[in-house]
Design brief:
about 25% strand, 12 strands, Ubiquitin-like (UB roll), about 280 residues
Length: about 280
């Protein structure tokens, strides 16, 4: 599986943060803080495996007849100028899909190269990631990935959602547990972006073939695996420590912003009071 990186305008995402920390990108007027309301105790392993097995068993799209596959590939290739699909003699086929990165939480990668600028992490292909709020530990770094890029993957019709997620993380040296991420299908309907989480056994290239090359009909988005509860057991101790450092930094910056805001208010109020007092003294 090969991955190419190309910039693309950021898309509107309906994803909301449900973790115990928040990004500086989510500024609000009242400086609201998110608080984790979950247990730090590790869940029983059998419950985690049971959840994974259930997700793995969820059925994906059904296979197409061989003649239908051939017809659809010919139609697909007639609608694209490059990166078409190729049918193999055994009935399988290969092609390209594009995955949009929509991660609102920091990811963990190997520590920043000492020769690289601060905040720049390089993947296996040498392409730099200029993340925000880079927090470096002994041998790893946590930072926010940019959300204005798309990864192009060359996969086969047998490649599953699980393999796509693992391949992306491995390619860009992300050390986080793959269970923290999920691949979503995005469709555009009636002026709205609709997201549907793909089962781990789903085959994205089959969905691409069925939908055709039009991104309005189907596009793939890598997001956090929203389960309604933060799975703290999936984080390592260094990752949790890095999150605390990021939280401390965000808290300090927000405190300074609040102090600055109300310092300005106090100054304006004092000026208004002084003007009112001077006006009362001048009036007979």
């Amino acid at each position: 599986m090969t991955v190419n990186t190309e910039p693309t305008p950021s898309m509107t995402s309906s994803n909301s943060m449900s973790s115990g920390y928040c990004s500086l990108d989510d500024e609000s007027e009242d400086f609201t803080f998110f608080t984790a309301k979950t247990s730090f105790f590790r869940k029983p392993k059998h419950s985690v495996k049971k959840s994974e097995a259930k997700e793995e068993e969820e059925g994906g799209a059904k296979d197409l007849p061989e003649e239908d596959v051939r017809t659809r590939i010919e139609e697909y290739n007639s609608r694209v100028s490059e990166n078409g699909m190729k049918l193999a003699s055994d009935g399988s086929y290969t092609g390209f899909i594009k995955v949009h990165l929509r991660l609102s939480r920091p990811v963990t990668v190997p520590a920043v190269d000492a020769t690289s600028p601060v905040g720049v992490v390089r993947g296996l292909d040498g392409a730099p990631f200029e993340g925000q709020d880079c927090v470096q530990g002994e041998d790893r770094t946590s930072f926010y990935l940019p959300c204005d890029c798309v990864k192009q993957l060359h996969i086969s019709s047998m490649t599953t959602t699980r393999e796509v997620i693992q391949g992306l993380l491995k390619k860009f040296m992300v050390l986080d547990n793959p269970r923290k991420f999920a691949l979503y299908r995005q469709t555009h309907r009636d002026g709205q972006d609709l997201f549907q989480k793909l089962p781990l056994c789903e085959r994205p290239l089959l969905l691409r073939l069925i939908a055709g090359p039009d991104p309005e009909q189907l596009s793939f988005v890598l997001k956090e695996n929203e389960t309604g509860e933060v799975e703290w057991h999936a984080f390592s101790v260094p990752e949790l420590q890095n999150f605390l450092v990021i939280l401390d930094k965000e808290e300090s910056e927000r405190v300074r912003a609040v102090e600055c805001k109300y310092t300005v208010y106090r100054r304006k109020l004092q000026q208004a009071l002084q003007q009112q007092q001077q006006q009362q003294q001048l009036d007979p």
